Amino acid sequence: MTFGLPRSPLELLGREAYWAGNLNVFIGERAMERHMTQPLRVYPGRTNLAAFFVGHRPDSYQFGFSSEDDRWDARLLDASFGSSLLHGLSTGEEIPTDKWVRCAGTRVVLLVIDPPSLCFAQKLEVHVTQQSTGRTAIVEFTLDPEAPGAGCYALG
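The structure corresponding to this sequence follows.
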């Protein structure tokens, strides 16, 4: 009898992985030019989650947002230490925007998006500035309730 491994560990959970281009916001001392995905399905009226990675060595970072529609609530959570996602959502392990955040190494950052019940495709950018270089990288998300595929993880 032969057992095959799935292409992605997420398939074990019944989900296909949705992989974006280069997920590291900073590699070495330089910011990458683009960090983006194809349109990512969101679920209107529910909390949606997408992840990306920041850094590779000790440094400080400042985060900010820009979007086409300010009715979409977006925030960032640090998921680096494996704490319960539900715990993080409820207790405020939120990454502040417009303040320097010290990182000892690579951080797993969750983008938490709460689109309105009636919404259309929009672009959301997460701006990440590295303190040691002064450079800003932009992580681009195109969020679309009509996008093909499994899309974001959704709660609620």
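The first helix runs from residue 85 to 91.
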